[in-house]
Design brief:
Serine Threonine Protein Phosphatase 5, Tetratricopeptide repeat; 23 helices; two-stranded antiparallel ribbon; 3 domains; 5 strands; mainly alpha; single chain; 3-stranded antiparallel beta sheet
Length: 473
Amino acid sequence: MFLPLEQKPNWRNPPLITLILVIANVLIFFMWQVNDDKYEGYASDYYQRSGLDMLELQRYIQYKKNVSANNTESRSTYIQMRQDGAFQKKLENDEIITPDDPAYAEWRANKDEYHILLNRSVKTKYALNSSEPSLLTSFTSLFIHEDNAHLIGNIVMLILLGLGIEILIGRLLFLLGYLISGLAGNYLFVIIHSDSLSYGIGASGAIAGILGMAIMIYGFRKISFFYFLFVYFDFIKARAVWILPLYFLSQAIIYFVFDSNINIEAHLGGLFGGLLFAGALKFIPGGIKYNNAGASAVNANFENDFAKGHQLLASMKIDEAKDVFSSLEKQYPDNIKIQQQLFTIAKYNPASDDYHRYAHKLLMFPGTDSNTIRVVYETYQHYANNAKPKPRWTPDLLASIAIKLASGGNIEDAEKIANLLVNSVKEFKKNAEVLHTIAMSYKNVDEEKRANYLNMLLENYPDSEEAKRIQEA
């Protein structure tokens, strides 16, 4: 069996629907279904003690006429009777044992008592009966399981598949797709077994739908797979679409080789339901977060290459490290970590164009988050003290540095830059923004300095947008 393992959940914003489904299935089984086997045993015992089994078998033989009732075939005939949906429908509708039949009154009373006993079992009452399906049991059957092994198998696959797919399509769409897939699996089961009395239970059809969604979403992308074959398991990288023929093969082996009661029809119906649902999402803007689909693989490649470059740099293989980080820069031009590494390499020659170029890139890096401001401040300190033959300052560069430093609390350095700009390039328009940022940094800290910088702004740049905002306030 192959399972795609690609997306890792973000536990700050957890995949709640998957977790709720897991908890719901576990609680229903261990708390609501806890006495099912006992109740079914009571019902089966009553069915035999009351004589219902022999009476109905006799009427079934008459109903079929061509079925032999000798001792060697009675057991198989009995099983056939219990699974004959058409016969059971007629039996329940009083068409086999009719009200004018001498045995009717006793049979009806015993039959009603048998149903009361049997319906005490959650599994029987809320399972999907292929010969008499209902909307209620189509849903409830998705949350009922046969035994511990059935529950554990489904829960494991739900976790492995659901955590990633819920991230890609969101909680509500994931829940909708899960239920639609489960219903698709149930109704394929009903269509194929409409003439037999068969019961369908379990979440496997809905889970197969999640697998179908994964195949449709990832398509021909290469993703990580976990596979197991008897006692052997491993991880491989392969195109997601390859899981489709492999899944069909696994279901064919189960159907033709193993004698089991696994609901293959529900699996296939759920799979197609999931494929169609995810296919429809492709026509809904934002229905599938493609930037996240395959993001783990992209992140893994980035981390591997970044670690390789860092290791080369630590080993003083400067040129090789530079090649690795330069290649990464082409793929991720806005990644500040890569720019830092290239600046670190350039520090070995502070007179080089690379040193000035990467210093300017970091100093002009957009954003006012704490990490960016910290990087800007550290780069500014190094560049101001080490650039050869001297720093290549420009008004734009200095203004950008001052604004970030003031925003980050390094006001004294920002003040030095502001005074330099006002005295050397007084006509520079961004000076007004610099002065306004510094003034706002002193708000509730030093009102006197705040007033001084606001006055400086109004005196030197009375026509600026910042001055207008101050006058209007």
